[in-house]
Structures are given as structure tokens and as C-alpha cells.
Design brief:
It is built from twelve helices and seven strands.
Length: about 400
């Protein structure tokens, strides 16, 4: 599918707007909340609350590039601070799941940035379990249907839930929980359910202490006889027999479609962090009189020049792959292969770029006086979450070779 990488005027305006937010609102408090893990960044939440009361947060009216604009937002804000981006009071990953697999009624019901009283809403996605990481089909959390009440009863434990604290504890929030309705069915039994905040039986067990993205609330959630209406099953939700009919849902494929939307966003986040590190290195070296000679023969370039050019090339490749995957979503076309390509490339690129940034700056790069070492720590999550580097490469190989999962593991 041919894609123009010339952004719409309103997307350019959005990019400029989000960069100002990143520079003025995020960078000044970046170190503070890295060092005060689990503390709510109230000034950041309040800022987005006030922004949202003017309309949708950061919304730019008029023609834009659809989902590409969403990725542009993610890149710019993660250039400011990836952890604060993940702490934004928005439906976030939970919203991506509803948007990818939900019915029109479910999207209308859950995809709001703010409650009726104007307070912000958090959304989270609960997939990973102590015994089920990259293999989503190994999920043990159960969802048993209670025909008498037309409800599903959830039981199990979920770990590493991004925005899990706000989504589970703050009124109006919600958690999208992956669970199996039939263990013997394997992948076919996996469904996703929307669990509103403060639902009885959903308990916040604790928050992770992490290497990076420390301002993000990464939670462990326990579900004990947690009841949700059957209408909260994402997709074509079960209709009570009392209504005279019963429909199916999108099942495991519908749940997995969430990643086709979330992986380009994570890739854009990675590009933002990588760009932050690269921009700083270029700026710092420039202050020391180092000039990058793009027109010089490679044989006469310095090692630093070659490193910086390679970092720029890797970053741009990741960005273009991300925009391609996003553009396919906006066009209503399948993007499973492209989403995994963007995620795999960006996760690897940001890891290499931030490590090289620390290396090029020497002791200064390793010092906590600067944010470069923080960006290196923040970067690694982009190579892990929403499918590890290895998992995404496996998906890419399967799609290119047209192999089923049973033939290529």
C-alpha cells in the first residue's frame, strides 16, 4: 500500500503542540518522579485534566492523519518523558483494546477521557500472569459464565499492568482483563473483559519497583469471584437467553487485534525516547565543537560521526515503519505484520541508541546529573512490553513465510 509520509497540516500543528507540552510540562519534573516512584505526579495529572476540560486532551480539530497523529503524539510526549506519558489520565492500553475489539456500543460506553464530572479516567490492560508471559494462550485466569445473572465470574492474578493503579482504583476507570472461558480450548477459549474500577473482587495487590519508567504505575491485580456483566465481554457480547438470542464474540483473534493497535504506539514511544537521547548527544557534542560532516566521504569521517549517522538512520527507519503500521489502521486495512515490524525495529533501535548515547558522553552520560542514563533505563521496556523482541520477530517470520504457529515456534 503506497503511503505518503507528508504529514497533514493539523498533524504538524499537533506535533508542535505536544512538543511544547513535553518541553514545558514533562521535562522539568522528569527526574523528580523517576526518583519518587509510585508517587502520583499531581501537577501532570492536573495539567491534563485542565487541558481535557477544553475538549479532548491536546485535540487538534480538522483533517489530520488519523492513527498516525496518535503515534506522533506518543513520540513527542515520550521525548518529554515516557513514564509520565504512561501515567496520563487516559484510557491508554485499555482503550486500545476496546477500540480494536469492542462493539460500537462498548466504544461509546468506555472510550471517554473524562467522567461526567470532568475528572480524568485511566484505562489498563491485564494480560501477563506469573505463569504466562509472552505466550498469551497460556493464560490461567478463568471467566465462568453465570447464566442465572448473565455475568462472568473472573478468578486469577495479573502482573505488570500498566496504569493498573489508576484504572482499578479511580472511579470511571477500567481494566481490560484477558481470561479463558474454557482451558481445554487453548487459544480459542481466551476472551477479554472490561472490568470497571472498584468492582468487588478486583484487588490492587501492589506496585512494581522497576528499572525504568518509574513514574508509571505498574500494578499486580487479583481477581477473586469478580463479577462483570456479560455485556462487558469485548466484541459481540453474549446476550442473555431471556432476550431470546445469543451471539458469539471475536474470541482470541479479537483479543490479539489489540496488539495491532498498541504495538505501533509502543514503537512511537520508543522513537520518542531514542530521539530525546540522540538530540541531546548532538547538542552536547555541538557545544564541544564536534560537527557532523554528512557530505564527507565515509573513509574520512570520525567514529563519532559514523555512530551518530547510524543512530539517525535507525531512528528514522523505526519512525517510518511505525507510521506505515499506523496508516494501515487509519485505512481500515490489516497491519499485523507491519505492527510487529515497527515494534521489533523500534524496540531494538531505542535500546542501541540510548546505550550509544551514554557511551559517547562518557562519565557525563552515566551521571544522574543528566537524563541520558534515565532514557537508557526507560528504553528497555519498549523492547519487552506488547510482545518481546523475540516474539515479534517470530510473528514477522510467520507472516512472511505464511506458516501457522504450530510450524514455527
Amino acid at each position: 500500500m503506497p503511503i505518503s509520509f507528508q504529514l497533514e497540516d493539523n498533524t504538524v500543528l499537533a506535533k508542535q503542540h505536544f512538543n511544547r507540552v513535553a518541553r514545558e510540562q514533562m521535562r522539568p519534573i522528569s527526574r523528580k518522579y523517576d526518583e519518587h516512584e509510585h508517587e502520583l505526579p499531581t501537577e501532570w495529572v492536573d495539567f491534563w485534566w485542565k487541558e481535557g476540560r477544553k475538549g479532548a486532551p491536546g485535540r487538534i480539530d480538522g483533517p489530520n492523519d488519523g492513527f498516525v497523529t496518535v503515534c506522533v503524539q506518543a513520540e513527542e510526549l515520550c521525548w518529554g518523558d515516557a513514564a509520565l506519558y504512561l501515567r496520563m489520565p487516559t484510557p491508554a492500553l485499555g482503550g486500545s483494546a476496546v477500540g480494536a475489539a469492542g462493539t460500537p456500543e462498548q466504544k461509546e460506553r468506555f472510550l471517554s477521557h473524562f467522567r461526567a464530572d470532568g475528572h480524568p479516567i485511566w484505562g489498563a490492560m491485564a494480560i501477563t500472569e506469573p505463569g504466562a508471559g509472552s505466550d498469551s494462550a497460556a493464560i490461567e485466569t478463568t471467566a465462568d459464565y453465570d447464566e442465572a445473572t448473565d455475568e462472568y465470574v473472573l478468578n486469577g492474578t495479573k502482573i505488570f499492568c500498566t496504569a493498573g493503579e489508576g484504572a482499578s482504583q479511580v472511579e470511571g476507570g477500567f481494566v481490560v482483563v484477558w481470561a479463558t472461558v474454557d482451558k481445554s480450548a487453548g487459544r480459542g477459549g481466551i476472551k477479554s473483559f472490561v472490568v470497571p474500577a472498584r468492582t468487588p473482587g478486583m484487588t490492587l495487590v501492589g506496585l512494581e519497583k522497576k528499572l525504568g519508567i518509574r513514574a508509571s504505575d505498574t500494578a499486580t491485580l487479583r481477581f477473586e469471584d469478580c463479577r462483570v456483566p456479560a455485556a462487558n465481554l469485548l466484541g459481540s457480547a453474549r446476550v442473555s437467553k431471556k432476550g431470546g438470542k445469543k451471539t458469539g464474540d471475536k474470541g482470541f483473534k479479537g483479543a490479539m487485534a489489540t496488539f495491532d493497535a498498541s504495538r505501533p504506539i509502543v514503537a512511537a514511544m520508543a522513537v520518542g525516547v531514542g530521539r530525546a537521547a540522540l538530540d541531546f548527544v548532538v547538542e552536547e557534542l555541538g557545544r564541544q565543537g564536534v560537527v557532523i560532516r554528512y557530505d564527507a566521504p565515509r573513509t574520512s569521517q570520525t567514529a563519532i560521526e559514523r555512530d551518530l549517522m547510524e543512530m539517525e538512520a535507525e531512528l528514522q527507519a523505526a519512525r517510518l515503519l511505525t507510521w506505515r503500521a499506523a496508516k494501515l489502521i487509519s485505512s481500515g486495512k490489516p497491519n499485523n505484520l507491519e505492527a510487529s515490524m515497527a515494534k521489533a525495529k523500534a524496540g531494538l533501535a531505542v535500546t542501541q541508541i540510548t546505550q550509544k548515547a551514554v557511551e559517547l558522553l562518557g562519565p557525563l552520560g552515566y551521571s544522574r546529573k543528566l537524563l541520558v542514563e534515565k532514557w537508557m533505563r526507560d528504553a528497555k521496556i519498549n523492547d519487552i512490553c506488547e510482545g518481546t523482541q523475540q516474539i515479534n520477530q517470530l510473528i514477522i517470520a510467520r507472516r512472511i513465510l505464511d506458516y501457522p504457529s504450530s510450524m514455527l515456534r
